[in-house]
From TrEMBL:
Molecular functions per Gene Ontology: glycosyltransferase activity
Principal localisation: membrane
Localization terms from the record: Membrane
Record carries keyword Transmembrane: yes
Protein name as catalogued: Uncharacterized protein LOC110425784
GO cellular component, one term: membrane
Organism: Herrania umbratica
Cross-referenced Pfam families: Branch
Membrane association type: Single-pass type II membrane protein
Keyword entries, A-Z: Glycoprotein, Glycosyltransferase, Membrane, Transferase, Transmembrane, Transmembrane helix
UniProt superkingdom: Eukaryota
């Protein structure tokens, strides 16, 4: 016959185990803090975006028909400048001076994170603040925001031919006429035939030999990206780019790869969809139509926590600006990041004599 003490042992063990699990649940987050999961894309946000992208595709078809049937008018192709931001656009005064006098050759669109408190810059040019959703670094939400900017720009103006994605920390390194002519030629010579041709090149960094490429590829788990994206076809690159309209439309129409790149990551330190999705997609779809290099200068030599070197006021000088322009590719750099807010005053002081004197 079992003693009362032995018969109660399972119950005691159960209570001990239950109490231990309770204490672990209660105190483990304080002892071993878990990594914060990055913001997911909700089903509703995804449906909203799909509708927007569909509208942009239809608008592009209507716009192409409109351009093709133009009479004696000679509209100019435009560059759409897309600002993706979660803080104040402190360099708005510098960009205003950059845009000054070229109203018929550009448009500005801003995706401002609605969860961040931003003060509206006093642009002297028309800036379109598009309906925005939450964004987070190293999250597919940044890809969605970039696509949202592309879609709104396509819907807004059929003459937007190039789309330059920038951050609030970017500055121009050249005058507007220099950048426009480099991409589109002399605006006085632009014609209807130029607007309708579909062979324009995109300027986006596409790398296949990045040191941590494999870690980035398996960040969602081994084999997760298959069969759509094999490791041999996976690419990385800069988050910021200048896309031709045909490639912007390709990005908006794409669904297959996006289903992979929007999946949650297990290794958050290696998962940056905004640096992976666009280079991989365009490398797979039209590698010859892309430059494989970016037009935005970034200094990664002394990066901190995944952020590039940030320039501060004492660094700003004519020599710095001339150095930032230098490139090993076909064009000198058009833009540069990352600059801290205290750089605005010294940049404005040398804007006319250095930045905008090409």
């Amino acid at each position: 016959m079992l003693s009362s003490s032995s018969s109660s042992s399972p119950f005691v063990y159960f209570l001990t185990l239950f109490f231990s699990l309770f204490l672990l649940f209660l105190f483990a987050p304080q002892i071993l803090p878990l990594k914060k999961q990055r913001s997911p894309i909700t089903v509703q946000d995804e449906l909203d975006d799909l509708q927007l992208f569909h509208e942009a595709t239809l608008a592009s078809s209507r716009g192409f028909s409109k351009i093709s049937h133009l009479g004696t008018t000679n509209p100019k192709p435009k560059i759409a400048f897309l600002f993706l931001t979660n803080s104040d656009l402190v360099f708005a005064p510098l960009w205003q001076r950059f845009f000054q006098g070229n109203d018929h050759l550009f448009n500005v669109y801003v995706h401002a994170d609605p969860y961040s408190k931003l003060s509206t810059p006093q642009w002297s040019v028309k800036a379109n603040f598009i309906p925005a959703k939450r964004t987070e670094r190293g999250s597919p939400t940044l890809v969605s925001a970039a696509r949202r900017l592309l879609a709104n720009a396509i819907i807004d103006d059929p003459f937007n031919l190039y789309f330059a994605l920038l951050s609030q920390h970017c500055i121009p390194l050249h005058s507007f006429p220099y950048i426009y002519t480099s991409l589109l030629g002399n605006p006085t010579a632009a014609s209807k035939s130029f607007l309708t041709q579909r062979s324009h090149k995109s300027y986006i960094e596409i790398l296949s030999n990045e040191p941590h490429l494999h870690n980035r590829y398996v960040a969602r788990g081994e084999g997760v990206m298959l069969p759509e994206v094999s490791f041999q076809r996976f690419r990385v690159g800069s988050q910021f780019f200048v896309l031709a309209k045909r490639h912007a439309l390709l990005v908006l129409k794409e669904r297959k790869l996006w289903r992979k790149f929007r999946l949650p990551c297990l290794d958050l330190d290696s998962c940056y969809p905004e640096e992976h999705y666009f280079p991989t997609l365009l490398s797979m779809q039209d590698p010859r139509g892309c430059s494989h290099y970016t037009l935005t200068r970034v200094n990664w030599t002394d990066s901190v926590d995944g952020h590039p070197h940030t320039h501060h006021s004492p660094e700003v000088s004519p020599d710095l600006l001339h150095t930032l322009r230098k490139s090993n590719s076909s064009y000198s750099y058009f833009f540069a990041r990352k600059f801290s807010p205290d750089c605005l005053k010294p940049l404005m002081a040398i804007a006319n004599d250095v930045i905008f004197r090409d």
